[in-house]
Amino acid sequence: MSPRCRIHHNLSTQCPFIRPFNPKLQYKKHCCFGDGKRRLLVVATTQSSTTCLDRSCHFFMYIKITLTTEDDHRNKNRKRSKGCMMRIHRLFCTAASAAQAATQPTATAASSTLPSARNAVEKLRQNQIPSLDHFIQKQFAESHHHADTSLNLGSRIDSDSQIRQLLSQESIPDQTPALTHSKVFIETYGCQQNMSDSEIAMSILQAHGYTYSPRQDDADVILLNTCSIREKAESKVWQRLKDIRAQWKRKRDARLDIPKPIVGVLGCMAERLKQDLLEEKNLVDIVVGPDAYRDLPNLLASRRLTGQAAMNVQLSLDETYADIAPVRFAQSSVSAFLSIQRGCNNLCSFCIVPFTRGRERSRPASSILDEVRRLSDQGFKEVVLVGQNVNNYADRSVVAETGDARREEEMASLMKASPRKLTEGFKTIWKENFEHALRFADLLDMVSQVDPNMRVRFTSPHPQWFPDELLQVIRDRHNVCKSLHLPAQSGSTVVLATMKRGYSREAYDALLEKARSMIPDLFVSTDLISGFCGETEVDHQHTLDLLRKSKFDKAYMFHYSLREKTHASRHLKDDVPLKVKLRRLQEVVETFQQVLAEKSDQYVNRSETILVDGHWSKRAEFLQGCTDGGRHVVFDPSLLSDVPIRVGDFVRVKIIGKQQGAFMATPLRRVVDLKNDRD
Prior knowledge:
Layout: E1 27-32, E2 38-48, E3 59-69, H1 70-74, E4 82-90, H2 98-103, H3 114-126, H4 132-143, H5 159-168, E5 183-188, H6 192-206, E6 211-212, E7 221-226, H7 231-253, E8 262-267, H8 268-273, H9 275-279, E9 286-288, H10 296-306, E10 310-312, E11 335-339, E12 341-342, H11 353-357, E13 361-362, H12 365-377, E14 382-386, E15 394-395, H13 398-402, H14 405-417, E16 438-439, H15 440-448, E17 455-459, H16 468-476, E18 483-485, H17 493-498, H18 505-518, E19 523-530, H19 537-550, E20 554-559, H20 567-571, H21 578-600, E21 607-616, E22 619-627, E23 632-635, E24 650-659, E25 662-671
Parallel strand pairs: 5-6, 5-7, 7-8, 8-9, 9-10, 11-14, 14-17, 18-19, 19-20, 23-25
Antiparallel strand pairs: 1-2, 2-3, 3-4, 12-13, 15-16, 21-22, 21-24, 22-23, 24-25
């Protein structure tokens, strides 16, 4: 039975006109009238809140009123002469009060169906056809003896007033029950966007009475925010789900009085697998896509009330969660992720992201700047702007939102003077109108001015959106980190074309050369895929050549993993054997490590400013931090005895060597003003 159409069987005898028959057709009744020529057909169905437009109920009932002729009915003709669809919301706060809620329903109709509903009901009354009131009264009378008398259902339903309420109301208040004693544990996999989404989901749950638990053993609800970018990422989640079930079974076998927690899968894996997650050995109770986190409280309440799985994986064209203030899990953290853009339009042939995150949409600049100010007031020293295609940010609402005529004129002038541009030599596969949109370079400039002593980073960009104006902002603003992530994916122009990346190897090399010439001491990271469809040994050698010549500071390297729904899965052949993929990946990793080892020597005896973010795991008395570019540095704070160093401080250090994967350094002084930080 589909979770979109289920209702708990135990409620069937308590709710007068809900019957657990066919899940899509819960109840059907014909009522004859006067001349016997026409019939009133009333169809009532129940569905879960996964398709509820305003997300304010746990269940709703569709009541479809249709008129058919006697001949049509006799001949089983499905054509209907008149009809309307009305939505009746049911607010089931607890199982015990479900029947009472059914006898006194709060009702509403979708705005799009209100005119047809009014018209149909008026025609029913003019023709003296038995009304919905008659039908409900009759069904209640027939089924009343099945109901639990201890619930005091009463003997009459005032459905005429309910119909008037139905036709006059357009919305109802959110009455989702607050589960004040429920604790939620969230585990995050994948990218920085998922980290931000987990904080957004927790904020929504807190507003409905849930509390955050840092320990899984204390939680009533366990949520896994997942990644689908590669098969390995999904395998980790499947194994984790099995571990969670095994842990609960061990507690049950030990006869510990601990209820089974509700387990949910959020994010990209939920969006990709959907129903498959619910059908896999009862490992998952709820499935929630990345654009449906607002519905989390309803889905959890539905699961708790009915015992049935629930799912909402509807993608949105405009959801950015701009009005949600994220819950920061690590209160002692000095860095915060801030989501500014969601979705991706690039449709690279290997990538699942456009199918799990949807189309691109950007968060209003005003809400971004407000959140940056809040983070500054809360003491955060670094903000990371995140998005699937972050440097393709385009806010079209900025002029309309200001309400200030002079500000509107300034913003219009700014956007006219600096139109959005592609990187030279790059192209997109889609056409989009960016007129009157605030671009990423302008947003980055405004964010950097909120707090001169707060570092600003961003990830993950696409190389095609790095015009000179953006590189100039990174160069000129002292608190914008001199760090770029430029995903190359391959060093072969042929493979890049197959990947639909929109650039050649020559265009990528030119962008990297320009960026390094404009921004001294630039830290550059990249992504590389080995063994993509059709990749030859010559193509592979081009990738190794890219590593040797580009001398990246950091690289994320993987072998190709075919993803369903992508262009590659439909039109290309995954013809590189796994053994060859792994061998090529190993060569890529070894080449990168050789280049990095040679490059690391040049940092010895250099001075850098780092942001202290905690204690070193290998020696607790040492502190660690990151440079402007992202290099990991460790130092002994006792060497700077005159000034105490704390987490969250900026410290000027001198690098003296490298040990156990980190640069070792000597502290020189504490930095108070980033703008005037000079040797």
